[in-house]
Amino acid sequence: MTTYQAQRRSTDVNPEGPRRPQGKPQAPAADRFRPDIEGLRAVAVLLVVANHAGLGLVHGGYVGVDVFFVISGFLITLHLFRELQQTGRIRFGAFYGRRIVRLLPASTVVVIATVAAAWTWMSPVQAKAVVFDALSAAAYGINVRLAVLGTDYLSAELEPSPLQHFWSLAVEEQFYFIWPLLLLAAASRTASRRRAAIALTGLGVVSFAVCVWQTGHSQPWAYFGIQARAWELAAGALIALAAERLKAVPGAAVATWLGVGAIVASAVMFDETTRFPGMAALLPVGGAVLVIAGGTARPRHGAVAILGTAPMQAIGKLSYSWYLWHWPALMLAPHVAGQELGTWTKAAVAAGSLIPAWLSLRLVENRVRFNPVFKRRPGRGLGLGATLTALTFGAAAIFLGLPNEVKGEGTAQDTAKALSQQPAVSEAQQLADARKKLLELIATSATVTAMPQNLTPPVTAAANDRPEGSKGCLASLDETTIKTALSQQCDRHGDPQGTATMVLFGDSHTEQWFDAFDAVAKKRHWRLVVLTKSGCTPADAYTIKINARRAFTECATWREEAFTKIKELKPALVLLSTRTYTDPPVDKAGAPAGDKAEADDLWSAALIRSAKRIQQLGAKPVIMQDTPDPRGTSVPDCVAAHPAAIQQCALKVTTAIYASRRTANADAAKAAGFPVIDPTTWFCTDTVCPVIVGNALVYRDGSHVTASYVKLLTPLLQAELPK
């Protein structure tokens, strides 16, 4: 599962909006307490929690977030427009003060408690990341942080944060920073529903268009971004503006039942492969609209018959608190237990989080919300907000100031010295000795149980152990041109004045070898050109774009431009490499290009097609097999969590090298007469690939090799590379 898929499971939302208690008949009819909306909150939060717990019946339970957005848009606009009608203005201080009093006390408790728990049970690397998530959540910007991480291939397999469900609060608060100003400007002092509806419709149409477009091009931004979610809140807001007229619309009862059915159907039919939000979001959003709009007429035989029952009302009342607590509980429980949780254990954890949710409601939310200090003067909530935000930032600063080291045991042999301090004999003998010493170190390291004190790089710095020289040479997922890389002088590495040229052509698993190839190019006085793109194979095939569920057309466009550049360069040698664990080829529309059983052959054929194109351009293609792959399990995090039992982090050869595809590539290359470099023995024994060799940490994340280890392999690579 990719990180973004995991992030979709963590989709959560603020399931609470302003609520008017029962027993206030003087309120306008449309603004009285709505048991159907309270029950709708229960439906939404149950879908979300069930989805997070992994209950198979609701793979699309993430649609609960869309329902919550519609509810919130309806309730907030109902209050804002009523105030505008009564006073001709909107008291922004009071509005934001009420929002703060309602939401921030409980969320602050959850954020600080989650950071403390992460610092206690998660690895130091993970715990530090949670602190930064807390800062983003406190600033209502975590949705932007998640969108950036979701579109960064190098971060695409991070474990979901226990605080990432706060993205939905960020979306709501960003919307409510814009909407009151737009409402006031559009409706003016006359409180014109028509002008307000026109402005809201315009906002919604633009947002929906962006949502549909962005879902196909950059799904994380469509999923987490306010620009692609505003239309859902706007849909609820439009119902609020039409509330009085909707009371007389016939068929209200039927509409509410159809709405509930649409929401449940979307939760059952959708899953992680659904292009969401996009057009698909119309089903749950439309369902929520039907329930709320139909319920405005308070039909006798509507869905309130179920939504208004005591259990649904109780769950709806707890929905905000449960939303806050259940996801951190699910994310932290495996770290507390020391193992992955089964489905029923997850369900038990999610259900158990109702206890802190209930305590939070009684001891924090209600005590602050109903405090006379804030009831009489809502604007005072702004001061409370400033205080609570400062408290969160202060707590984060304290945690960041605590020791964040992982202590090792003993001192391991220095791998760099072991490979370089060879007898003063011939270069061939030095190479043989270095190869022999590396194999011995790998075999010995496979039996070591404790992380050494002199680990290089330290696990807390591993994520940044990337090839610095190629900075700017790895095109992003969305780029379609090599021009950015060329502007960063990515065609001027090695010996820029060299008479021969070598090209690195491929994805990030190609770019990770930069330091070794750069050193070889300098020694041979060759010019080195780096043409690499995140997630983009050099093989002549369409694949699925990460986090987009469609054909990676950006890769195909970029690859053709790279071929054009290679033709212009007239290089002597082109090194092609790609991550082995990549989706099999698809057609341009994203449909499978062949039988899954033939995936390896389809893949190797595509790789050889590219090699032949390069050969026809006058260059010598060399195919480099992939490095053993942790397959998404962050090695630094694992080592930090198990410093006295690092064997738990070692990779099994049977799963780390994808033998069938590796064999298909090798056989196809041999048949075509192309040289192949296989680095497997530089990482593994016959059965295991240790993640620490001597004192060298091999991987910087769940996929890529550290630049430090790559540098150690330079002599071995040089010997394998054709001259």
Automatic annotation (TrEMBL):
One of its GO terms (molecular function) is hydrolase activity. It is found in: Cell membrane. Residues 36-340 form the Acyltransferase domain. Keywords: Acyltransferase, Cell membrane, Hydrolase, Membrane, Transferase, Transmembrane, Transmembrane helix. Residues 488-717 form the SGNH domain. The chain crosses the membrane at residues 39-55, 61-81, 101-122, 166-184, 196-215, 221-241, 248-270, 276-297, 304-323, 343-361, 382-402. Its main location: membrane. Residues 1-31 are annotated as: Disordered. InterPro entries: Acyl_transf_3_dom (IPR002656), Acyltransferase_3 (IPR050879), SGNH (IPR043968), SGNH_hydro_sf (IPR036514). It comes from the Bacteria. It is a multi-pass membrane protein. This is SGNH hydrolase domain-containing protein. It comes from Dactylosporangium maewongense.
